[in-house]
């Protein structure tokens, strides 16, 4: 279905009226007028003129292992909350590279930090000390429950480290026990990564079954079922409980304070560690620096990644001193982890996001946008619920969300799916404006007929 067909009587041939903001329809589909945005240098400009979308997509199918079912879109540049494809069409980005680009594209403070650090020192390995790594660790510790930080390169690596730290902690805490607690608890709809340990903690069989046997000893419980979790944890055979305060990939489900409090109490009484996965929901996305701050219930270990270096690969595991005491030299490591370049970027990101006024703005925009979506979408028969906290929002549908996602892309708005494919996941840059959120809400509303079209074609 074309974009023009989806925009009904609300759209004229000359302009689209979005509340107080008038936008020409060509904004998203005409060539970019800013050469610096469309093509940062003449070499890239010439390359893009030669390699259009169809040819680039064909090359990808020839030369890259087919692990991704990509959308048919070749992106070449971005600025703020906007992305541009190789034909110069403009898109409003509500994906942030899957909750990574929290400061948008080309943030000047991030860019300055990266270019200055790249000009001085990029990588030395962890055989030596480097100042940016220690400075970022100081900031993370000062702003959280933790006493120490461990750096890695991704969210799944952070999960792997947390698994090892939890098992080492139990061995350290039970020196006379030949078989200390080594099993783990995770929850329905959870996602903790794709490497073998993290995969074992991920609930969807779809992800696990092609690679079985995965790491044994993982029990999956219903997310939010306090009674069941407490009863199982009491057995004393678990090294750690892994839980997302807000599930992202699973469908934007939030924990309750009672649930997290009960996990905390049960873990304390049984000697089990409580691990929060804030890879997607952490670092300002919820309107709090850490999502669990909304519940005032704190973990022993927390995993971080996606937005921490603003688009450069980084992961981190924050731990209490009690956990850190169990870890010795050589227990874990990484060649690239925490290098000066990514940590310099991380400092710039953390310094900006952790400001109280920044977080308050995220909270306010999140409430505004969710209310707007409820107002505009709530009456549609396919919309079951709009949920989320801050700028991590899910629109649950009674059918697949893919036609709506595709229609939005055709109309210049990029969103994601989640859950069982029936949730529209919205994780825009945290710097997004209210005017841009209003545009997004209107486009989503006008693209809803794509869902009826899906039903009609069944």
Strand content: 15-25%
CATH topology of the domain at 108-356: Aspartate Aminotransferase, domain 2
CA-based shape: globular
What strand line-up does the widest sheet have? 6-14-13-12-9-7-8
Distance separating the two termini: 16 Å
Helix content: 25-40%
The number of helical elements comes to 19
Largest sheet: 7 strands, mixed
User: How many strand units?
Assistant: 19
Secondary-structure-derived class: alpha/beta
Low-confidence segments = 4-42, 46-50
Level-1 CATH class name of the domain at 108-356 = Alpha Beta
EC number: 2.6.1.11
Protein name: acetylornithine transaminase
Pfam families: Aminotran_3
Catalytic activity: N(2)-acetyl-L-ornithine + 2-oxoglutarate = N-acetyl-L-glutamate 5-semialdehyde + L-glutamate
3D structure, described in words:
This protein is an alpha/beta fold. The protein has helices at residues 3-6, 26-29, 35-38, 42-50, 53-63, 96-99, 108-120, 131-142, 155-173, 196-200, 205-208, 226-233, 257-270, 321-324, 340-353, 356-377, 402-410, 434-447, 449-456; strands spanning 16-18, 21-23, 75-79, 82-85, 90-93, 148-152, 183-187, 218-221, 238-243, 246-247, 253-254, 273-277, 301-304, 315-319, 383-389, 392-397, 413-414, 416-418, 423-426. A hairpin with a 2-residue loop joins strand 1 (16-18) and strand 2. It starts with a helix and ends with a helix. Mean pLDDT is 90; it is low at 4-42 and 46-50. It holds the Pfam family Aminotran_3. Belongs to the class-III pyridoxal-phosphate-dependent aminotransferase family.
